[in-house]
Structures are given as structure tokens and as C-alpha cells.
Amino acid sequence: MAENWDGNYDPGSQSDESYHLERMHIEPIYDAFVCPLTKQVMRDPVTLENGQTFDRESIEKWFKECRESGRKLVCPLTLKELRSTDLKPSIALRNTIEEWTSRNEAAQLDMACRSLNLTSPESDVLLAMKYVQHICQKNRSSRHIARSAGLIPMIIDMLKSSSRKVRCRALETLRIVVEENDENKEILAEGDTVRTIVKFLSHEQSKEREEAVSLLFELSKSEALCEKIGSINGAILMLVGMASSQSENVLTVEKADKTLENLEKCENNVRQMAENSRLQPLLTQILEGPPETKLSMATFLGELVLNNDIKVFVARTVGSSLINIMKSGNMQSREAALKALNQISSYEASSKVLIEAGILPPLVKDLFAVGANQLPMRLKEVSATILANVVNSGYDFDSISVGPDHQTLVSEDIVCSLLHLISNTGPAIECKLLQVLFGLTSSPSTVLNVVAAIKSSGAIISLVQFIEAPQKDLRVASVKLLQNLSPNMGQELADALRGSVGQLGSLIKVMSENMGITEEQAAAVGLLADLPERDLGLTRQMLDEDAFQIVISRVHSIRQGEIKGGRFVTPFLVGLVRVLARVTFVLADEPSAIELCRKNHIAALFIELLQSNGLENVQMNSAMALENLSQESKNLTKLPDLPTPGFCASVFSCFSKQPVISGLCRIHRGTCSLRESFCLLEGQAVEKLVALLDHTNEKVVEAALAALSTILDDGVDIEQGVMVLCEAEGIRPILDVLLEKRTDNLRRRAVWVVERILRSEEIAYEVSGDPNLSTALVDAFQHGDYRTRQIAERALKHVDRLPNFSGVFPNMG
Fold it and tell me: Coiled coil: which residue ranges (predicted)?
């Protein structure tokens, strides 16, 4: 056949292809068939008055050009003027041409059929398919020829070719063959052809992807094929990817998008698009579809897993519509709307959109409603979940009316209703409602309202009981809520936990579980840490239940790397250190606390924790604990037994000098150790505390300074304490704390320490010329509280800035 096709054919050029296809003839072409103007076979031959024959279209165009240019009407061949432009159809010639054309087309079609197989040369296959395109494009009604000749299955087979050019030409030819022809589309859709076409969407070559998506676009115009395309695994996913691609060419993106628009006719396709983040069709159905479709799509929306950005988009698009369905629809519609709202409310930004759309009043109404129209308990659980999501968005709920009498979520009667509901529902709803209260107590602007309602209703006992719930989620929710309440209800919580009911033991048990660090453990430790540290009864009960022994073990495990990191490690460690520190607040009243600290070398542990860089709360609480331990040192140091003075010593003063005893603590004047008497000097803690004076966190600095002040306190050798600070190079950092004036508490503490330091004449002399120090002390003297002004006065006297006679204030003693 190759010798029968035009040997000069170039398959790469569209213009050449069109030219050659017009001239591919099996029978010889006669000159009478060719129009003198176009040099192409005439379709509608007509004769002029002079007997010359032209194709009607070309000669009419010639006449038009003559008139428009103002020239005489002449024959294009003879150039002689014509009297008339009448055109006489050459019927006989036209019939002859049509018969000749039909014979040629049939022969050429037969050759194309014989060329369309995988063993033919590539050039023959390409030319054959181009000829099929030519036949179909020359006359749209002739597309049946391809079907009648059985060409469609042959072209489909070409999709298996190893030649990229052949595959692309096959996709292109199939598109032309099925254009506006439903019968051809039905034939193409038989078997796995559509699946094969879809596979081309993932090919590496962009030309194949472009041709495949163009063919799918044409097929998608048939409603009957939309479902079939959508049913092919991955089809819609790939089309959605192409429609949103930044790397595909514009035509491919546009065709993919239009294909998806056609596929929206089928509900299953709309669902698949939504699963692949093309949600607008589904949302449009919720907004504009018939009731059954709205219900179906809302139900499906509630089952989707959406990313956060999509949740915001959905909330803005259909949030109001879903809220209206939730308020006024039948029970089935309300359920679908609630589940959809539950899905999109789980992100802070989308929750705020729903709040502004008015979700709160109907939610609260559904939760509290009783009677015939009330929601079943399973849907009340969904409502409670949505409310928990919404409340934890951080919105200002004190300004949103949710009740008929303009109550807000934090109005006392609404909070009391929530508390009542918590006591009269199942665990699932209880958990969500506790999360609602947790959200309301997480904001400084609303926590006091909730606290007032809990106190007035006496609900704290009921809330504490959830600590022992068998459901983990319920326990976590209750502990997190109680932790939020503890700054304002610390004593009430301590009273409720103290005793033999078991809640305190439950918290300790949770803390001791050795299976990583969970949110429940971090919350339980956080709650224990927030309880009043000076509640002696609570601390004694914790001692009795070995709580501190467990804490010590867990701290060591974390520091030794035995517990792997996670997002709850830091809050868990901070809580443990705070819980352990509370034992140091009762040392003076509880001997067993001292024994615990000695046995477990607690002072050494806190000194190590001072160096927990990056964990400011750990450092601060460790310094506070060391302050408490060091305060007790002067009571625990073992003073030496001095011999009773003899008769000579009482008579002669030269014999009254006390013997010198070596090995005594310079500060406490007795036998000290870090383990037994918690001496900071013996534990080499002074240098580490001095290092914290340069910390950026004022509370860490204040705690470190408070711990250091214990070596200058009454009852110790202040002069030696100052010397210890000198040796640790701590004098300058302490003076700097005073000069920086960071907070009132720090200034108050720094003035006290500086006054003690300035009792050393040598140091007072050395710093007396520092104008900054004098200015800071004068400022404290003028603006501090009563006690600070007294201390500042004495400090100024040390540096000779005030006369050393009757003070402005009475002597303090």
C-alpha cells in the first residue's frame, strides 16, 4: 500500500497532510474534475455563459472580489467581459465526480483498514489514521463511515502501539471519530477502552496526556458515559490533579476542568471529586439541589476527612445553609446537617465562621431541649461535640446571646444547665460537655463566670469524681478542666481531693504508669502541681501514698533518657518538678518530709535541674525548692559541742577563749552536708544560682536571687555569706539585677540582698562611687513599699549617701 499513498507525504506537517489527503486518489484524476481557480476537485461544478466550468464557491468568490474592487466582471480564464453572472449547475459532471470520489474513498478506506494493524510501518499507520480524520472532518455526517467500516476497534488497537506518535494519533483520531456522534461513543466505550484512555492521563509525555484528556472531554458530553468514566479507579483523582496543575499546559488544564464539569451530572462523581478536594460541586448541590440531593450530599460531607483550609472554605460556603437545616429540617436532615457541621467545626478558623453564621443558639437549644422534638441522645452527642469544637476556638463568648433572655454561654444559668446535663447523661456526652467547660475556662475573660457558677452549684465534688471514670477520654477532659479551675478554686479542689474517696490516689496512679508519657499523665501532674503548695494535709496524704517517691523516679527516668520524647514530655517534667517542690514547703512541720529529702538526695536533684536550659519553669521551681531547703539548713546543721568553761576561765579572761574547731560550715557554723542539712555551699549550688541571675525570664531571676538570699539571712554568718558570693563572682550580677529595675518584686528582693552585701565595709567602700547604684537605691527609697524603703535607707547609709543618725523610719531590729 505504501506505493499507492503519495510517496512525498510528511506525517509531521498538518498543512502538508491536508494537501496530500485531498490528492490521494486510486483512479486517475481527470482535468474536467478540477476547478481552474482552486486546482482542487470540484464539489458543485457550475458553467458560465461562455461555457467555462468552475466550482460554485470559487467563482462566486471571484465575482465578489470584482465588484468590491470596482473591476469589470470577466471570466477568470479568458479574461473576457461577461454580460451575466448566471451560473448553470453542471449536474452530469457533478454526478460523475461524486461517483468517482465514492470509488476513490472506498478504495482508500480499504487501504486504511489494511494499514491499521500493529505490524504495519509507522508511516502507513499514521497516514491511515489521518485519512480517517480527513473523512470524518470533511463531512460530519460521514462519521458513520468509520463505524460501518469497523475502523473504531482498529484505531483502539493502535493505543497499544510502542510508538508514541501512533498512540497520540490514535487518541486524536478517536476524538474526531466520536465528536457529536453518540453511536460512535457507545462503540468506543465498550470493554476496557475508557480505562485504557484514563491510563494515558498518567503518562510521562504531555502530548499523550493532552490528547487523552481531550478525548475524555468529548466522551463526557454523553451523560451515559459520565458514570463509566467516574467508575474507573483514579480517573477523577487524576483529572482533579490536572485541573489544578501549575505545570500542565493551559489547554490541558482547561479540558480537564471542563471534563470534570461534565462529570458532575453523576452524584457518585461529585462524591469522588469531594474526596479529592474538589468540593465546589458537592457544596453547590447542598445549596441548590433538590431536597433528596441536599440530604445525600450533606450526609456525605459529614463523612469526609477535610484538611483545615478546606474546612474554612466549606464553612463560608454552606455553613449558614447547614445551620438552617439543623434548625428547621426533619430529623433525618438535622442529623445530616449536624454531622457535616461536626466535621467542619473541628478547626479554630472554621469554628469562628460558624459562630458568626449563628450556630450557637440552635446548638444550645438542641442540647437542653426536652419533649417530642428533642434530639435523640446520639445526636445530642454530636451537638455537644460541635459545641466543644466551637468553644475551644478562643472566641469571645461573653458577647453572644444564646438564650431567650439574652443569656450567654457563661451566664450562670447556662453553665448550671451544662453542669446538670453532665450529671444526667452518658459518658460520651459528659466528655464533650467537660470539654465545653474546659474551653470556657481557658479564657481569662470567661473563667471567673464559670468558677462562680460551679461554686454556687457545689458541682466541684461531682467534677472531681470523673477523675476515676473508666473512660480515658472522660478522665482526661475532667483533669484538664480541673487544672483550668485550680488557680481560682485551688483550696476547694484540695479539700475535695483530700480524704479517703480515692481521687488523689487515681491521679497518682496515672502519674506512675510507665508506658511513655500521655496527655492524661501530663494533665494529672499539672493538676497536682497547681494545688496550693502549703496545704499541709494534702502534702501529708501525698507522702503517705508515696506520690513524691513516684515523682522522683519519673524525673530520673526522663533525665536518663529512659522515657522517649514526645509533645507531652516537657509539660510532664515541669509538672513533676512543681509537685516535688511542694514537699519543701512543709519541712518545718513535717519530719517525714525531711527524711524523704535526705533519703532521695532531693537537694542534689534540684541543683542538677537548675541547669535545664530551655526549661524556664523547671529552673524557676528548682530554685524555689532550693530556697526552701536552704532556709531549713540553719535548723538542720549540727552545731559543735563546746566544753563547759572551767574555774580558771571564769576567773581569768585569758583562759576563756573558745577552742577552734575545723571542718565547720562557714555560713551555718556547724557540720553541714548537702544530703543531711541541704547546705547550698556544700552542694556547690551558689555558682549555678548566680549564673541564673542573667536569665531573660524575670521569674527565674527572682527565684535564683531568693535562694541566694538564704546565705545572707538572719541566723547565719552574713559576713561569710557575702564572702561566698564574692568567691562565686556573684556581687556584680546581684547589683545589676537592682540596676535593671525589671519588676517590683525583683527590686524588692534585690534591695534586701544588696543591703546585706553592703554591710561589708570593703564592698561598701568599693561601690560607693558608683552613681548608678546610688541612683537605684534612692529610687527604691523614694518609690518602694514601706519595707523596701526602710531597707533602702539602711543601704544608702552603708555607702554614705544618708547621714547615719536617727533614720527616717523607726529601727527595725
Answer: none
Q: Choose among 24, 22, 16, 52: nearest CA to 37.
A: 52
Grid cell digits, residue 373: 422534638
Cα gap 189→183, rounded to integer Å: 10
SS3 content of the chain, % helix, strand, coil (to 5): 65, 0, 30
pLDDT above 60 (res 3): no
| pTM exceeds 0.90, yes or no | no
Element (DSSP H or E) covering residue 88: strand 88-89
Distance between CA 426 and CA 440 in Å, rounded?
21
Residue 64, judged by CB atoms within 10 A of its CB (0-12, 13-18, 19+), counts as: exposed
Task: Give the length of the chain.
Answer: 813
State how far the Cα of 449 lies from the Cα of 396, in Å rounded to an integer.
Answer: 13
At 220 the three-state DSSP class reads helix
Continuous H helices in 673-760: 674-677, 686-691, 698-709, 718-727, 731-740, 744-757
d(CA 625, CA 565): 25
Q: How confident is the model at residue 484 (pLDDT cuts 50, 70, 90)?
A: very high
The residues, ordered by sequence, that sit 6+ positions from 63 with a Cβ below 8 Å of its Cβ are 73, 85
Which residues, including other chains, have CB under 8 Å from residue 157's CB and lie 6 or more apart? 116, 117, 118
Nearest to 584 by CA among 575, 576, 594: 594
Q: What is the Cβ-side half-sphere exposure of residue 318, based on CA atoms within 13 angstroms?
A: 28
Read off the pLDDT of residues 209-245 as tens digits, 9 standing for 90 and up.
Answer: 999 999 999 999 998 899 999 999 999 999 999 998 8
The contacts of residue 767 (CB under 8 Å, 6+ apart) are: 735, 758, 773, 799
State the sign of the Cα–Cα–Cα–Cα dihedral 449, 452, 454, 456: negative
- Written as one string, the DSSP assignment of 290-356 is -HHHHHHHHHHHHH----HHHHHHHHHHHHHHHHHHHHHS-HHHHHHHHHHHHHHTSSHHHHHHHHH
Cα–Cα distance, 129 to 155 (Å, whole number): 8
Report pLDDT digits (tens) over 543-602: 998 999 999 999 998 888 887 768 889 999 999 999 999 999 999 988 999 999 999 999
Residues 753-757: contacts with CB under 8 Å, at least 24 apart = 753/705, 753/708, 753/709, 753/712, 754/795, 755/791, 755/792, 755/794, 755/795, 755/798, 756/709, 756/712, 756/718, 756/721, 756/722, 757/712, 757/722, 757/725, 757/731
Cell numbers given for 812: 527595725
CA distance 47 to 75: 11
Nearest to 746 by CA among 714, 784, 781, 711: 784
Q: Can you tell me whether residue 241 is helix, strand or coil?
A: helix
Q: How many CB atoms lie within 10 A of CB 712?
A: 22
Kindly tell me the burial class for residue 515, based on how many C-beta atoms sit within 10 Å of its own C-beta (0-12, 13-18, 19 or more): exposed
Residue 259: its H or E element? helix 250-263
